Amino acid sequence: MGFGNFQAGHRRRPSIAEIVCAAQYAGKRRNSACSRQGDQTEQEYGMKKISQTSVFRLTAAVMAGSLLLVLQGCSSIPRPEGEMASANTALISAENQDAALHAPVAMDRAKDKLRRAKQAMQDEDYAEARRLADEALADAEYAQAFTSKTRVEQALSDMQTSIEVLQNEISRGQGN
């Protein structure tokens, strides 16, 4: 039995129009769309008759797709894993330099912001987590810089004291 161009024994798959026509023929509901001329017209213009059920299904599929796109748009902010790791590394580095002794306020702010960033990550508020991680990184780097500055100032003060002591000894040695 053949349906349009599809013959039993052929290996070619039937088109959708041929399957629809075959189903209508089997159900004895053959209409003009399945006639040779109707098939040719539909194939030429790429058009099909669409029932109300098909329209409903198509509308539902479009609505579901739109909903998925909207939900994806809401969650398009990626997890700030890199920012969290950078802030954590900077905080550990600052602690290793004893920044808590020289810049305790900046260290406390960095620790607090990193703790809040971790909480925001758990709450899946990635924008807030990124912001807090960036601020924690800045505070930890500030603490490191302040610690380095304090150490350099202390070294400068020690050098100046050493220079004064040496100058005094030289003056005494020349005075004798």
Structure description:
- This protein is mostly helical and 176 residues long.
- The protein has 3 domains: 1-49, no CATH class; 50-78; 81-175.
- Helix content is 76%, strand content 0%.
- The chain is built from 7 helices and no strands.
- The chain has helices spanning 16-26, 36-45, 52-74, 81-96, 99-102, 104-122, 126-175.
- Helix 6 (104-122) runs antiparallel to helix 7.
- The longest helix is centred in the last third of the chain and has 50 residues, at 126-175.
- The termini are far apart.
- The relative contact order is 0.08.
What share of the residues lie within helices?
Answer: over 70%
Low-confidence stretches: 37-47
Element-by-element helix/strand order: HHHHHHH
Q: How many domains, as an integer?
A: 3
* Inertia-based shape: rod-shaped
Largest sheet: none
Structural class: mainly alpha
Strand share of the residues?
under 5%
- The number of helical runs is 7
Record field, number of beta strands = 0
Termini, distance in Å?
131 Å
Mean pLDDT: 78
Radius of gyration (Å): 39 Å
List keywords for this structure.
176 residues, 3 domains, 76% helix, mainly alpha
Describe the secondary structure blueprint for this structure.
Layout: H1 16-26, H2 36-45, H3 52-74, H4 81-96, H5 99-102, H6 104-122, H7 126-175
Helix pairs in contact: 4-6, 4-7, 6-7
Question: Would you summarize the structure shown here?
Answer:
The protein has 176 residues and is mostly helical. The chain folds into 3 domains: 49 residues, no CATH class; 29 residues; 95 residues.
